[in-house]
Amino acid sequence: MPAEWETQKAVMLTWPHAGTDWRDILGEVEPVFLDIAKAVLQFENLVVSCEDANKVNALSALFETYIQDNNLPHSVRVLQAPADDTWARDHGPISVRTPTGLSLLDFAFNAWGGKFAYEKDNRINGKLAEAGAFGDLPMRAIDLVLEGGSIESDGQGTLLTTSECLLTPTRNPELDRTAIEAALSELLGARHFLWLNHGYLAGDDTDSHIDTLARLCAADTICYVACPDETDEHYHALKAMEEELRNFHQPDGQPYKLTPLPWPDAIHDDDGERLPATYANFLIINGAVLLPVYGVAQDGEAIETLASLFPDRKIVPIQCRPLIKQHGSLHCVTMQIPAE
Hints:
CATH class: Alpha Beta
Distance between the termini: 13 Å
GO molecular function: agmatine deiminase activity; protein-arginine deiminase activity
CATH topology: L-arginine/glycine Amidinotransferase, Chain A
Helix content: 25-40%
Order of helices and strands: EHEHEHEEHHEEEHHEEEHEEEHEE
Shape: globular
Number of helices: 9
CATH superfamily: L-arginine/glycine Amidinotransferase, Chain A
Pfam families: PAD_porph
Keywords: Hydrolase
Protein name: Agmatine deiminase
GO biological process, one term: putrescine biosynthetic process
């Protein structure tokens, strides 16, 4: 499985529509998707799946105009496919490099253990492949539940994940940790597993996806969510996670370089529920990092931290406060397709 920082061909988005949980705030959330899409097109190609046929045509025209007006060398494909929701990170295809070239794996998706409807989302990859969205890349259906947000790869055989997610009985109840490792070794080429047993975010529906907590930034570097406030409900779990990270070693035995991410001010919805705002949910693309920001005091520090982690890439902040109203953020709504 390639690392996210390797050269990419495109980024995939699944567009929100009135039949999703976004229905009441479509006017707020669609501009966020537009900002992400336009940012991607500055650096690489874009693939969009959309349920509404009229919206397919409107988005195609909008993005083609944007490409022409900005004289961009990239392309966009907007294709019709029914969708239950918009979390492309988790229902999108996971890429692997094989001796014969790049291949796409279509893992089973069951909405984080059957929490929500998922039948349409589980068929999106097949629909897009039939429509030629991924060119000539072969795609294989895999009878294993796995979400892209639950795993991080360094592109060299190391996989970073959480036991809370991968070992929950609502995903693959017949498989224990040893069996999960065997399956991911065979399917993703993983040889070195880093399991986090601590760490969570209030308001998270994913059972502690790794992409909300800790991210590989290079083969020897991990950034992670850190909570300095001892009165915060997250403090002890994230402190325990930090200690686990300090005890991790690279395959050669060296410890990882660790960088804590800023802890954003608490954000709550209208019912007083805390929302899972996290700066770990960034997307690495060709020449840039798209960073979710939330209109809080720590946004500037987060931009500076990411700039220090990715000095050769442009940091593009995108206001993602509307996204966390449905308990996800920027990385959650995107899936990269590596270059062949």
